[in-house]
Design a protein that fits this description.
homodimer; alpha/beta; 4-stranded parallel beta sheet; 14 helices; 39% helix; globular
Chain lengths: 406, 406
């Protein structure tokens, strides 16, 4: 694997691109094979299981996979960029050059499209990948890796640059302990998977995804902006990591809460409010959707048409709340006050900090990265949406003619 | 601590600088206090212990600490740099801004000067630090943190931005498990410490230091360059991580070995050679310094006047050897052949790859970083020598006026 990953360093970028395009053609021509394999997975799951929909492949989903593969093939190559170039006083030429990580392990759950997604992003950035998919999708993933290996062979690339692990617990343990063989491990999935990986891994890990996301409606917030931002952040898609979980409202603006939350009520968002906010909304928000916040609510990532609502007496308390309960993913302030904006963007320590915008924009595509392998919520390594550039590292190359150090 | 670390974000850089200068003055004025504390540590250790010298403070070492502190205070501030600035098609202004990690934990061994070093680099880059020094240096470190807290208080900075942990195993465990409180942990010390930290930590870690370093003397190497490079890499300082451990020689150049290694023999370097190299050197190298390589030698970081020596039949085998036994620290090729140079710099995956230069240059000062908190040997996060910039991360700040995502 390590040896195979090194062959990626020496090949022209056009060859890696060609393999991804070949894979797109293979997927396009093999709907039946993929759908039959997927059907063998689906019969093992009841359709009422919420994972069923994620697991299911359809003709249109396969078309989307083909289109995504072609898109990744069309992105600019992230490798070889000279990030820094200097001549040291002793005449040594120092360059800092962008290179792949080498071998990236990705652990994910029941979505078979992730197999194609991760493979193409890793190959495009010169990385070999070890794929560990969910047990529920094992037949689909076997079919996918079969096509991936065919595409690689067609292009004369060592198929060992993409390995699918058996979907066993032992395979996961081995991957997480492969010090010296795996340069980076990225878990893609729910909080439990991520916690397990972080707690178990001896190889470097990038935590992704889990987002406890806040919006702070400031003393000097514009109400119309607030309505748009809160609605879009909360209701655009409730099951994604950038969705709003908690609204913090400045106590001087409690009277605006009915207007601020009207759209949420119309759409059926259940609000878990603290005492002051509850009182301000009572009679102005659907009764069945208004409940008192429980003790554990501030730390919840709802993933549902539900939202926490807390009153704060000043921006410092808002920042403190976010620091305590936020997961470093995405946070936004609604305010027309430049001082408050600046305090917020300076002190709120998240990957993405917004001013007068919904957190829904935290996304590789929206950021112009062209694609996304995940959203990092840790500070070591890339932060926020990770595109091709974010799954590369650098190397110092120093050239001289026998200078020595005193 | 988290709260204290946030105060660092809001203060002007001049205040952080002033605190470091105040500390320099305090160290300058308190030699007696520091030397007495150090003496209490030293009595607990026998002078023949190799750690004794590392532990010992002297007037001239304190002067060096003062000078290092003033140097760190004079470096440019790494924070606030706008690394990227774009307007997205929907009018959103996206900026990527350099910010501190937050809270950095550093675990180190018996050198009391590291306490001042780590504190000043962390403070200068806006990071709070948790210091876990070695038990042997506990009195010295207590005295040091006392002066650090005095300097911080004099400047009106919350002294909690620098915390010294008790030198117990429990404190280390707590630090390594402080998910959500510690953003980054850097072990500084020997291989055992680093392995322990990597295997135990649930917080993100940067592995530092350990270097199994190679020089490859190519078919088309210039002999004079090779003599200079090998001598400097091996004998400049044998106890540092960038020191040469293994020389790989192209089989067509075995006849040059006596000349290549002459200086090493004069200086007393013991060579552990494979069969072919042993034969080539026999009779041309001091007998008592020439031994046959043992099986475990290729993976040894010697830290001594000793060196492995292996014969390779081509550059691919050299690259393979380095991939297998190297630690990703520093590697060098001696060759006049541009093709060999390019294969080596492309395929050898180390933080620092050299052409016709000794690996002794792997050092923050030599790289022009101004200072160094360690040398990273992993690929996630900063790689190679880490200065102030390398202990910062970034944050996306997006500003709009109520745009929403479709």
């Amino acid at each position: 694997m390590r040896e195979a990953s090194r062959t990626l360093l020496m090949m022209p970028d056009t060859l890696r691109t060609r393999a991804i395009l070949a894979l797109a053609d293979l997927v396009d021509a093999n709907h039946t094979l993929l759908l039959e394999a997927n059907a063998r997975d689906l019969v093992k799951m009841t359709p009422v299981n919420p994972l069923y929909d994620r697991l299911q492949l359809t003709d249109s989903r396969l078309d989307a996979i083909v289109s995504d593969l072609r898109h990744v093939a069309a992105l600019p190559c992230p490798l070889g960029e000279v990030m820094e170039e200097r001549t040291l006083p002793n005449g040594i030429e120092l360059r800092r050059v962008r290179v792949p990580y080498g071998v990236i392990g990705v652990i994910y759950e029941a979505r078979p499209n992730v197999t194609f997604d991760v493979f193409s992003l890793c190959l495009r950035s010169g990385n070999a990948c070890i794929l560990k998919g969910g047990k529920d999708a094992s037949e689909s993933n076997e079919a996918a890796i079969g096509l991936i290996h065919r595409a690689l062979r067609e292009c004369g690339i060592n198929p060992d640059v993409a390995v699918l692990l058996p979907s066993t617990h032992e395979a996961t343990e081995a991957l997480l302990n492969a010090v010296g063989y795996v340069d980076l491990c990225i878990p893609r999935g729910g909080r439990r998977l991520i916690d397990f990986v972080r707690d178990t891994a001896r190889v470097p890990v990038i935590e992704t995804g889990a987002g406890v996301v806040h919006a702070y409606f400031d003393r000097l917030a514009d109400l119309e902006t607030g309505i748009r931002v809160v609605d879009n952040a909360k209701t655009r898609r409730v099951s994604v990591c950038n969705a709003l979980d908690t609204l913090l409202v400045h106590s001087s603006r409690l009277a605006d809460l009915p207007a601020l939350c009207k759209t949420l009520g119309d759409k059926g968002v259940e609000i878990h409010a603290d005492a002051r906010a509850y009182e301000a909304l009572s009679g102005h928000y659907p009764d069945r959707l208004l409940v008192r916040a429980a003790e554990a609510d501030p730390e919840r990532e709802w993933m549902d048409m539900k939202m926490g609502l807390y009153t704060v007496d000043d921006i410092d308390i808002a920042v403190e709340h976010i620091s305590r309960y936020g997961s470093g993913h995405s946070e936004t302030i609604i305010s027309e006050d430049p001082v408050a904006q600046s305090i917020f963007t300076c002190r709120v320590d998240a990957a993405c900090v917004y001013v007068n915008l919904p957190t829904s924009f935290t996304d590789g595509g929206q950021f112009g990265l062209g694609a996304e392998i995940g959203i990092s919520t840790q500070k070591l390594g890339p932060r926020g949406p990770m595109g091709l550039r974010e799954i590369t590292t650098y190397r110092y190359i120093l050239t001289g003619h026998g200078q020595v150090r005193k």
